[in-house]
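Researcher: Following up on the earlier apo prediction. This time include the ligand. It's flavin mononucleotide, with the SMILES given after the sequence.
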Amino acid sequence: MTIKKILILNGSSRKKGTSFSFSRTIKTLCEDTGNSAEIIHVIDYFKGKEELHQLKELMLQSDIIAMVAPLYSDTLSYYDIWFLERLVSEYSHELRGKDFFAIGQCGFPDITRNEPLLNTCRFFAEEVGMRWLGGLSYGGGAMINGAFLEDLGKKGEKIILGFKFALEDVLQGHQISSKSQELITVEIPKILQWPLVAFLNYHTRKKARENGNIDYKRRAYLE
Ligand SMILES: Cc1cc2nc3c(=O)[nH]c(=O)nc-3n(C[C@H](O)[C@H](O)[C@H](O)COP(=O)(O)O)c2cc1C
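Model: Understood. Below is the ligand-bound prediction.
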C-alpha cells in the first residue's frame, strides 16, 4: 500500500480546543497505520504568524487535506473562510486532484447545525477541483472542551473508532461511510434534551458576559 500524507487544518482559534483534540486523534490514527500526518493552525496564517507562501511545499507533499473546525454562529468561522479563499486563489494548481474531507463540531448536540460548515467545505473542494470524500458532524464539542478522546471513557472510544473507520475509507480514496457518523453521533434521551440546551445557553451567555458582551440579545443586523 502506498504511504499517504494527510494535512490537517485545525480550524479553531483555540489551539488546545476540541478541534485540536479531534485533529490530534486523526494524526495518531494515521501514524498508527504507517502513514503520516501534520497539523497546522489556520489562525496562525490569518494572524500573520505563519506565511501562506510557505504552504506550497506542504500542499504538494500532501495527498489528503482535512479541515477540522468548530461551528461559530452557524457556520465556518471567518478566518477559516478567509483561509479557504486564499487556497482557492493561490494554490488551486497544487491542490487539484487531491482528496479533501472535513469534520465539523458544534457546541449543541444537534448535528444538523454543522451542515452549512460542511457544505462550505464541500463547495471549496469542488471549486478547487479536489475530490470531496465527505464530512463528519459532531454535536456536543463544547462538553469535550479540548479533552483528549482517550480520557473520555466509552464516549471517547466510540469517537476514536468512528474516526478510525473514516480514515480507513479516506486512505483508500473512498467516500467516508455512514458507519463513522453513526459511531460519533451522541444519542441524547428526549427528556434530557431541553435541560441540556438550557444549560448550554446559560453557559454561553455567562461566557459572553464575562467577555464584556453584556447586550448579547442585540441584533445589530436589524438596526
Ligand atoms: C463565538 C462562538 C460562536 C459559536 N456558535 C455556535 C453555534 O452557532 N452553534 C453551536 O452549536 N455551537 C456554537 N459555538 C460552540 C462551539 O462550536 C463549540 O464550543 C466548539 O466545541 C468549540 O470548538 P474548539 O474547542 O475547537 O474551539 C460557538 C462558540 C463560540 C465561541
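Model: DSSP finds nine helices and five strands in the chain.
Researcher: Noted. I'll compare it with the apo version next.
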